[in-house]
Amino acid sequence: MEIEALEAILMDDFKEIDPSESGVSTTNRCFQITLSPQEDDLDASNYTPVQLALIFSHTEKYPDEPPLLNVKSIRGIKTDDLNMLQEKLGREQIIIPHGEPVTTETFLAWRERFEAELALERAKLMPESALTAPKDKRLTGRQWFESGRAAAVIFCFVPHHIVISLGFALCFSTCSTIILYF
Predict the structure, then answer these.
(1) 174 confidence band (pLDDT: 50, 70, 90)
(2) Long-range CB pairs of 27-31, under 8 A, 24+ apart, other chains included
(3) Considering the entire predicted model, what is its pTM?
(4) Per-residue pLDDT tens for 60-86?
(5) Which of 29, 75, 105, 110 could form a Cys-Cys staple with 51, CB 3.0–4.6 A?
(6) How far is CA 162 from CA 14, 84, 110, in A?
(7) Gap between the terminal Cα atoms of the chain
(8) CATH assignment of the domain containing 24
(9) Are 71 and 128 part of one and the same domain?
(10) Do 25 and 50 belong together in one domain?
(11) Are residues 113 and 86 in the same domain?
């Protein structure tokens, strides 16, 4: 199924090759992906100065074991560069994600800080007289909204993300949107 997906995506740049041509010590099926630099104008008639073949074959224990890999110069790649690519091909890569992982504890700490910031913003938007006025003289929510001083805060809940926007609407078909006026 993976091979069919690669054929559909890569089309002419993907083909099955004979294991004896692969440079990989296996009798299993071998495949070649042709890699070429992509030009800005995407004109296929242009001459490509370099091309590389990435050759792979699945082992008997695939997917528990990585595939066998090899690189071959089709056109214009020096032997030194090819050897360097071959060395890097077998090396494991450690990818360090940037940012802080979201856990329950970090989310709760963030939410506490966010709610404190939101309360400060609300206090800044309200006139001083509204904060100190007796309860019977305070504006109702409707009066506050109709006075034009209200700012809309939109919370958009997407799994693992919270998008917040001040003063304009967000439209996502995959989330539920709550609009609060204050």
Answers:
(1) very low
(2) 28/57, 28/58, 28/59, 28/60, 29/57, 29/58, 30/55, 30/56, 30/57, 31/3, 31/6, 31/55, 31/56, 31/57
(3) 0.47
(4) 888 888 888 888 888 888 888 888 888
(5) 75
(6) 41, 44, 11
(7) 54
(8) 3.10.110.10
(9) no
(10) yes
(11) no
